[in-house]
Amino acid sequence: MKNWDVFISYLRLPVFMRLLIIGTIMIVIFGTLIHFVEPATFRHVFDGIWWAIVTAATIGYGDMVPKTVAGKIVAISLILLGTGVITTYFASLSAAAVAKESALSNGQLRYMQKGHIIIVGWNERAREVIAKLSEYTPPVRCVIIDATLNELPVPFKNVHFYKRKS
């Protein structure tokens, strides 16, 4: 039953964390495997892991290359599996960053920090107040709460926008 709990905990992790775990396990397995398949070329397990990282990331320095048919089969397997996992990892990481940035600019991300000024409603006076507050050193953090705005109305980095549901 304990293995099931570990599996359920794994499934609850964010996608990019799961892919990172799978990628790490895959790199260690292929690095160890190539060490045992070609001990003359890959003298240490770490050499194999180095080769697996370089190969899976499609960098391919060429400093260590399998020489036997068995080693080349391991390499082909790693290339087919590794590039897919590594590419998917970076794609999911990028997608998460873009989604967070979109939620931030569209006012869908809550502000959870302390020590800020809240401005409810948006007009030219609010713009002037934020411009003056941004001149302070250190700049004052502001949160704009408004139901009529569709995105962050000012380019200041210390301003957070939250779209209030009307």
Name the descriptors.
3-stranded parallel beta sheet; 166 residues; mainly alpha; single chain; 56% helix
List the helices and strands and how they pair.
Elements: H1 2-11, H2 15-37, H3 45-56, H4 69-105, E1 117-120, H5 124-134, E2 142-146, E3 159-163
Parallel strand pairs: 1-2, 2-3
Helix pairs in contact: 2-3, 2-4
Question: Terminal Cα separation, in Å?
Answer: 47 Å
- Largest pleated sheet: 3 strands, parallel
| Cross-sheet strand order for the largest sheet | 1-2-3
> What form results from the Cα inertia axes?
elongated
Compressed to H and E, one letter per element, the order equals HHHHEHEE
Low-confidence stretches: none
Helix content: 55-70%
Q: Using DSSP, what is the number of strands? A: 3
> If you compute it from the alpha carbons, what radius of gyration comes out, rounded to the nearest whole angstrom?
25 Å
pLDDT averaged residue by residue? 87
Number of helices: 5
Based on helices, strands and strand pairing, what is the structural class?
Answer: mainly alpha
Approximately how much beta-strand content do the residues carry? Answer: 5-15%
